[in-house]
Amino acid sequence: FFPENAEFAEKCETKKLIFIGPESNAIETMGDKLRARQTVIAYGVPVVPGVQQKISDADEVRRTVSEIGLPIIIKASAGGGGKGMRLVRKGVQFDIGLYNGQSEAYHRLATIRLTLRSCRASRIIQNFKFLADQVWQYRFIFLSGMSLGRP
What we know:
This protein has about 150 residues and is α+β, with helices and mostly antiparallel strands. The chain contains 5 helices and 5 strands. It has a domain of about 60 residues: Dna Ligase, domain 1 (2-Layer Sandwich). The C terminus is likely disordered.
């Protein structure tokens, strides 16, 4: 999917081709869950409670869980498509979720870097559509939908 391919977008930029999609640096930033989270926090966007740095130590994960509470989602910090997401609703599921999350991260990235975030029973999902040009002028187009999402 080209809108998620930073290398393709960068080649278009280098060759002065107009790519209808995000700039390569935006794709790279949003492709890393923790970097994306830190970026949106810096702009004042509210986020779901979770970690702000990469974690791989089980004790650190347990401390974070005790602060934000269950349920949580454990996920590799990079990658996409919902792969490797482990929903942990109860403490007894924690070790299995952590092990599976670490295993997925290692197989995909050859490293164990995880992110976790709070996961409540339901939330409202809104999809906003914007149009932007190359001189950073943005226009709000429409709200494309609103739905209740569940983990």
